[in-house]
Amino acid sequence: MKDIKDILIKLSEEVAEYLGIDLIPIEYENLEIDDSRLILKPISKIVINIKYENNFLESAKCITHEMRHIFQIYWANLMDDKFARIWKEELAQAKSSANINVNSNEYNDYSLQAIELDVFAFSQYYLRNRNIYFKYEDKRFQRLVEEYMKKYLYEN
Q1: Among 130, 93, 156, which Cα is nearest to 8's?
Q2: Which pLDDT belongs to residue 68?
Q3: What radius of gyration, in Å, describes the C-alpha atoms of the chain?
Q4: What is the pLDDT of residues 117-152, one digit of tens each?
Q5: Which residues are registered as beta bridge partners of 48?
Q6: What does the pLDDT read at residue 156?
Q7: pTM of whole model > 0.70?
Q8: What torsion do the CA atoms of 27, 33, 35, 41 make, to the nearest 10 degrees?
Q9: What is the rounded distance in angstroms from the CA atom of residue 46 to the CA atom of residue 40?
Q10: Handedness of CA 113, 100, 53, 91 (dihedral sign)
Q11: How far apart are CA 78 and CA 75, in angstroms?
Q12: What is the DSSP letter of 33?
């Protein structure tokens, strides 16, 4: 039986290839608030909360989420379309656990940013296509994610 970390390494390689991005290291650390975080400086890496170290599904969600943010950064800097313009603006002033109160209504504002809706939808879309299923707890948010996937992620 393969170790969970080996499976997650393979998943991260597949996601990077799918998105056409560079693979960056993934580490587990004690994060007080976040499930995961993309760190770009001084060294690029994805950090996943240590509480998910032995949880395949939550780690997979974190990996796809943060790798999609990397894709957004590339896209926003290389392209000139609707997504690039929206993502570039939001990335410059993004709400995150570093600048909001996660126990308040500000979390809704965070979740509804175009960059965040995209990564939440991408995580579900990508993992669903690999027969890994989950739904977000908030039913209204789940419906929004489903609509986003239908409109922007499913290949016609």
Answers
A1: 130
A2: 98
A3: 15
A4: 999 999 999 999 999 999 999 999 999 999 999 999
A5: 28, 36
A6: 42
A7: yes
A8: -40
A9: 9
A10: positive
A11: 5
A12: S
